[in-house]
Structures
1.
Amino acid sequence: MSGLLQGTGESADYGRSRTYEFRHCWVHVSPGYTETVYHDGSRVCAAPELNETYFAKAERYGYGRDVAALSREHEILHTFLAEKLGYGSSPTLWAVAHNHEGGVAPVWEMEEEETMVLAFQVYLNGGPAGEGVRRLTDAGLDLESLRVEALALLRE
Ligand SMILES: [Zn+2]
């Protein structure tokens, strides 16, 4: 699947479950929610909100009205991009999974990661490479290669 889904408020993948395996976690995708589970058993669950704010967010990041795809891909990309940057796992999701305890990422770093993931989602959906993706290019990563790889991972 590629391109934008418009108007349904549901993903074409709705109803499909899948598990992605990363270095330090699994990401389980289920109808309506996405769960990142670390090898130590800690987890983060995310679900799209069915309200106008979230619909507007989906549109802003290139998903039309597909809030499910925005949420699902966002969660997977946190870990995908963190691995590409050389982190073992997403500092943000790790912090959330561990209740922000035990030497986890500071808030500013989590905000920076959040901005980067969202900016990459815009780029993934054919939008411009905004300021937020600079962290990726500064690290020497090639945006277009990342895009191709991410699309294959997320939508094939
Ligand atoms: Zn996030």
2.
Amino acid sequence: MTMAERWKEVRKIAGRQGPFAVDRDLFQIDGLAGEARQPIWFDCDTGVDDAIALLLLHQLDRFQLAGISTVAGNVALEKTTRNTLAVQALIGSEVPVYRGAACPLIRDQVTAPEVHGLNGLGGVELPEPALQVEALPAWDALYQAARKQGGELTLIAVGPMTNIGLALAKYKDLPELLKRVVIMGGGAGGGNTTPAAEFNIFVDPEAADMLFNCGVPVTMCGLDMTMKAYLTAEELDDLGRQGSTQARFARDCLQSALAYSLSLGQPGVALHDPAAVLFAADDSIFEAHPAWIRVETKGGPTYGKTVTDLYSDRKMEPRRHLVVTDIDRDRFKARLFDLMRRYGDGNRGSALY
Ligand SMILES: [Ca+2]
């Protein structure tokens, strides 16, 4: 079954109730079973969970990563770009990295050092990367990649949507060139930056609303699902014991976010961005529902909220988006550990960290 066929199937079964069954784990299957590699664009604000998402992307054989763009978010643009390059160096990846927007479309910049540390990597210091950022701005590079892929490009966006908003403003035909968009952001329920708003949407609500309103189907991997995609302190230690440089880095950079999450009474550290990447790779361990989605941009207590009709009358039009509501955490954890194990057992670890 192709990804497109499986995608349709998810939409068909989206109204199901009760627990969902997975009869096989695609990550256990060697190779791609004849499927072409999906071209992917990754937009991020690295960021501790963005960093883990980059580690997973590198190991997902079903993806062909066309480019990575950076945006201001968890920390300032200079740091998100530097962190992205440093993590790419840690992986040994040479996928080009493009610098994006340094601030939201019309709002003042908001960052999240309480979660990601002052440097954005939880205080972990990676060496200065030899990799250089590309000269082309992110929005132009994204558009060129979308044209080159002829309608097959999947955009995964796990930071504020500013780069996407700028690309949509500049290139009218971009929506028809994107196959689909998977974002980490928002939530049909509550928020994390405010009671109503999730961080990525709160930072640039106008840009997010442009995306939801541009005509492209958007899958919203929001807090409804990603708060269930967590690792406990013990599980994070287990991950580090895999021994590779990359696994130890993952364990260490998540420690400050873990401490913050535990202080709020949560069971572990939510891996928001990795969950969105794994959804894009294989949605069989997730539950998703069609919905109408827009963003509240006018101010007041609900500023930055992603408003959906998922829990109301389901009568808004168009209902082209998907809200991901659930994840099988055990299988999520198994896939995460399996992908991370591909970095080896430490004997081949890089001297970079
Ligand atoms: Ca992020």
